[in-house]
Amino acid sequence: MSGDNFHIAGDNVNVHGTGNIGMVKNMAPAAVSPELQAALAELTVKLQELRAVVAPADAQRIDAALPALAPDAAVQPQARFNALTAIAGIVATAGSLREPIESAVNGIRQLLGL
Predict the structure, then answer these.
(1) DSSP per residue over 50-106, as a string?
(2) Using CA atoms, how far apart are residues 11 and 83, in angstroms rounded to an integer?
(3) Which of 59, 66, 82, 104 has its CA at a distance of 20 to 30 angstroms from the CA of residue 36?
(4) What is the pTM of this model?
(5) How far apart are the C-alpha atoms of 16 and 9, rounded to whole Å?
(6) CA separation, residue 49 to residues 41, 43, 44, 53, 82 (Å)
(7) How far apart are the first and last CA of the chain?
(8) What's the rounded Cα separation, in Å, for the pair 1 and 7?
(9) Distance between CA 86 and CA 51 in Å, rounded?
C-alpha cells in the first residue's frame, strides 16, 4: 500500500509506508475579521452586565461560554456558534437586557456565516 493515494470526503490522503493508522488534521481556526472582533467585544461587555442579574446557574453557563466568545480566542466558528446558542437560551429570560444581547448574538452568527 505504500505510495497509495485516497480521496476521503474532501481530504487528499497520501499513504507512505505500511502500518499507517489514522490521519492528522491540522486545522487552524479562521482569521477573525475586525467586525467580528468588535461584535464579540461588545457582546462580552453585555454578558458581564447580564451575568450580574441572572441566577447563579445561568451565570455559570455564561462563564462557560465566555472563553469561546473572547475576541482574540483561537476557536473554530462552530465552537463560537455553540457558545452563542447557550447564551441565546439564557437571554430568553433576561428582561430588559434581552433585546440588545439577542441582537448582538444574531449579528455575530451572521458574521460567522453559520
Answers:
(1) HHTTS-HHHHHHHHHHHHHH-TT----HHHHHHHHHHHHHHHTT-GGGHHHHHHHHH
(2) 28
(3) 59
(4) 0.66
(5) 20
(6) 13, 10, 9, 7, 21
(7) 39
(8) 15
(9) 13
Q: Which residue ranges of the chain lie beneath pLDDT 70?
A: 1-14, 22-30
Identify the residue whose cell numbers are 505510495: 3
- Amino acid 109 reads R
In whole angstroms, what is the distance from residue 87 CA to residue 83 CA?
6
CA distance 105 to 99: 10
Q: Any idea what DSSP says for residue 33?
A: P
25-50: per-residue pLDDT in tens? Answer: 655 556 778 898 999 999 999 999 99
CA dist 47 to 2, 40, 41, 76, Å? 54, 10, 10, 21
